[in-house]
Amino acid sequence: MSWEDGISFGLSEEVIAVRETARKFALDEVLPLAGKIDQEHWFPSEIVKKLGNLGFMGACIPSKYNGSELSQVAYCLIIEELAAACASTSIIVSAHHSLCSIPILDYGTEDQKERFLKPLASGEKLGCFALSEPGSGSDAASMTCKAEKKGDRFIINGTKNWITNGPQANTAVLFATIDTTAGHKGVTAFVHDLNMPGISRGKSEDKLGIRGSGTCSLTYDNVELRAENVLGEVGRGFKVAMTTLNGGRTGVAAQAVGIARAALRDALQYSKERKAFGRVINEFQSIQNYLAEMVNQVDAARYLTISAAAKKDAGLEYAREAAQAKLFASEAAMFCANKGIQIHGGYGYVTEYPAERHLRDAKITEIYEGTSEIQKFVIASNLVKE
Ligand code: CAA
């Protein structure tokens, strides 16, 4: 057993086997390409295809819809293993699975599951989640993207922003409002093919980190969707968004654990090789303090993440726990990435070593799927209610 194995008790043999498969794949096929993916802003489509063949693109989807029927705990461990190799790859899977496939599973009709979910779960198609807008991020209910009802059709007009997988995706879960004065009660969810007249994709964003994952805006210009594209009920889409984000936040937490782990793994290795004042640097107490604090952060973040995922698997309320896991794990990733650079000294500041990439990748986990400030709001408001 090594510190990287993480939780070593209470996991079923099946979950441990899934983690082993994910780790082997991540180490053999993803880690060697992580630097190239980052530096060349390279979307790893071959890796995504192989992840489909492994069943990971439909991890928690039932087998009748081409999925692997795994638990949320197993899924979080897959995301952690991928993120410990390449944060970009992990968010491609996480946005596709947590934010697009799961709401179709949870709220979709049988017809929507046949048409949209099956090719997503097999990895044949890629999914995205279109909630944020240029003027609406944390205040998601203030969206202005309009769904105007005309007979059995909805005419969509507006722009959605920061869409992970937007440049490559085939399918979107979209949120638009039927009444901009109704706040969250106007929000309606849709699922649709992205290859439709009237939809245009903006330029791929040039990001600080997770540079292999594509992000762009989606503009809808008189796009005609039909009643059969409505996901759940008209006017009940905010609930779809919020419950989907609860699951998504456990995925981002797992991603952050993976990034924190990568930062520690690389710093630990460096500390065993680098000599100063005639000794390897991990014999100095300052470096030992950093390493001790880092492993504590990794383990604590993982326990929060797996405990939130286990609550989801048990069918219990877990919005607070998901927010706690994301808040803590994203801060742990920033802490570990920052200390990782410090341990590397000057070598941590240049692209020759992956230490600087971990810091750039870590930052987004404090922002997407709800900022740290929003997680604190979710935690505190649930605490008060409880
Ligand atoms: N789980 C379940 N239900 C929830 C919920 C949660 N976490 N949060 C709110 N709700 C429900 C409330 O219970 C309420 O339900 P009723 O109408 O039945 O009473 C309803 O939603 C409205 O709740 P609020 O009055 O609290 O709503 P609000 O407008 O004040 O906003 C908010 C609440 C928590 C701030 C919400 O707007 C929010 O989560 N904002 C952050 C959005 C976000 O995470 N965006 C990320 C976009 S995705 C992304 O990052 C891109 C990507 O591709 C990765």
Explain this structure.
By secondary structure, the protein is of the alpha+beta class. The chain has three domains: 13-125, Butyryl-Coa Dehydrogenase, subunit A, domain 1 (Orthogonal Bundle); 128-235, Butyryl-CoA Dehydrogenase, subunit A, domain 2, CATH 2.40.110.10; 239-385, Butyryl-CoA Dehydrogenase, subunit A, domain 3, CATH 1.20.140.10. 51% of the residues lie in helices and 15% in strands. The protein contains eleven helices and ten strands. The protein has helices at residues 13-30, 34-39, 45-53, 72-85, 87-107, 110-122, 237-273, 285-313, 319-344, 355-363, 372-385; strands at 127-130, 146-150, 153-164, 171-177, 187-193, 199-201, 215-226, 230-231, 275-276, 279-280. The strands form three sheets. Strands 1-4-5-8 form a four-stranded mixed beta sheet. Strands 2-3-7-6 form a four-stranded antiparallel beta sheet, covered by helices on one side. Helix 7 runs parallel beside helix 9. The radius of gyration is 21 Å and the shape is globular. Bound molecules: acetoacetyl-coenzyme A. Acetoacetyl-coenzyme A (CAA) binds next to strand 3, helix 7 and helix 11.
